[in-house]
Design a protein that fits this description.
With about 260 residues, the chain is an alpha+beta fold. It contains four helices and seven strands. The termini are far apart.
Length: about 260
């Protein structure tokens, strides 16, 4: 287990430093921040949505080079604490200096998932290659737990899970690693390793990938969460959000493109 953890950490470090290991191709995240990212010198890079990499910021800085340290900028709205003053979403990220609301829907429902998983507080959402949704307890010293969602270019759950499993077998050096069927949710697959979990959901034109860390939800309740997300209606073209908190759409919410749901 320690060897696998060191392997994951080393691979993540190489990626962040611009010296990544070249891996097999995987379905890319359709999130706008992932489109058109430059690749200086055409150096191959590990995709930003690589399932091994779950992080809140990718910034690395050189050590002290003798130059005066620049002043620390004030964190933006939603950085380190929830904020709704943007009028679009409840914004939250643990460390991102300038968090952004998620521009895509994956069928997530913050309030229903908060209740299912037993979290007192839904902190908010932010975009970092995929949409992150954060929960916490009433303990002020507790670390937030997260779930993340993204839409892939892949249209088949089987293909998405197979490519994911191949990458994780390589990263973890575990030839036995593999996704399994989600109980009570036909067509969905999930897996877990090193304190992280992944699921691939059917139901929309493209596969949705959901990931979460230990503590985000128990296995039996997470199966219910995934069923809730899988059965949500996709948003009509140009449809506005249903509110500040992400809400799973029902058939009546997809009445007319460009108009709020009923």
């Amino acid at each position: 287990m320690r060897s696998a953890s060191r392997s994951l950490l080393a691979l993540a470090s190489f990626t962040l430093l611009g010296c990544p290991a070249k891996l097999p191709e995987q379905g890319k995240d359709l999130t706008p921040s992932n489109v058109g990212d430059p690749t200086p010198g055409n150096v191959p890079i590990t995709p930003a949505d690589d399932p091994r990499l779950v992080r809140d910021t990718t910034d690395l800085y050189d050590g002290d080079n003798g130059s005066p340290a620049p002043p620390t900028p004030e964190p933006g709205r939603g950085s380190g604490k929830p904020d709704e003053t943007n009028g679009v979403c409840r914004l939250y990220a643990p460390k991102l200096p300038e968090p952004e609301c998620c521009p895509v829907e994956v069928g997530f429902d913050a309030e229903r998932i908060r209740e299912l998983c037993g979290h007192p507080i839904y902190l908010g959402e932010s975009l970092q290659h995929s949409c992150g949704y954060y929960f916490t307890s009433l303990d002020p010293n507790a670390k937030p737990v997260f779930m993340r969602g993204s839409k892939l270019t892949i249209e088949s759950v089987e293909v998405a899970a197979k490519e994911h499993d191949e990458r994780l077998r390589l990263a973890l050096d575990k030839p036995e690693f593999g996704s399994k069927a989600v109980p009570g949710l036909p067509g969905a697959m999930w897996s877990g390793a090193e304190g992280l979990h992944w699921a691939f959901l059917p139901g929309w034109d493209h596969v949705r990938q959901i990931s979460w860390n230990d503590g985000a939800c128990s296995d039996d309740k997470m199966a219910e969460v995934l069923k809730l997300i899988a059965e949500a209606e996709p948003p009509p073209p140009n449809a506005p959000r249903l509110g500040l908190l992400p809400t799973a759409r029902k058939p009546t919410d997809a009445a007319k493109p460009g108009e709020p749901g009923n």
